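Quick sanity check, AMP-dependent synthetase/ligase domain-containing protein:
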Amino acid sequence: YKELKEKILYFASGLISIGINKGDKAAIISENRPEWAIADYGIIHTGALTVPIYPSLPQNQIEYILKTSGAKYVIVSDRKQCKKINNICRKLDLLKYVISLSEPEKEYAFGIKTFNDIIEEGKKDYINNKKRLDELSEQIDFDDVFTIIFTSGTTDNPKGVELTHGNVLSNIEATLNAVEITREYLFLSFLPLAHILERMVGQFLPLYLGASIAYAENLSTLKQNIIEVRPTIILSVPRIFEKMHEA
């Protein structure tokens, strides 16, 4: 947790170095991985808002969400997602930076930094940025919006749903009142973090408790990952359990 805290603070500091401010929107387009949580908490720590986007979405839907939310920063997992942003970036007037969790393949038509670039820049500038970072985090209020989550949009364009810090805390408290969970538990994360169920119960809840999170490689390796890490809790939906039973 000490390492996690340092990376979150350095990432937040790095975001300040590239110009993020309270109320700005930063999108995350990535599969589940530790960097997802670090980026999410880093964004929130600056008073900015996270806009999670499913990496499986086609670029036209990603374009719509980025435009509608007004995202200035986009965090992507890999070259495939970089390519999507490259194809639509000229239509995104507010876009300032793309941050890639992996090494970019080539030069793109937008400013791009890697996740490690932001961490290193934030570490280097941390002493200078700490006062500003403290000011931004102290301004965060219980009723402030911290994320905009877009619905699937099966019948129309996706709709953005705003959630506050208070929403998350009340849900965590309600869950802990209903279910006995301790910091000794190990969670296995595999449902998309772009969905509030996984993000709430599979990320915020265990980190609130000081518990541990393992990240499944993908759905096809889920059975093997369960055997390997032996999680205490698996958050899922009925269809996944049915498939596991059938297997």
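Posting the structure with no commentary besides this: The radius of gyration is 18 Å.
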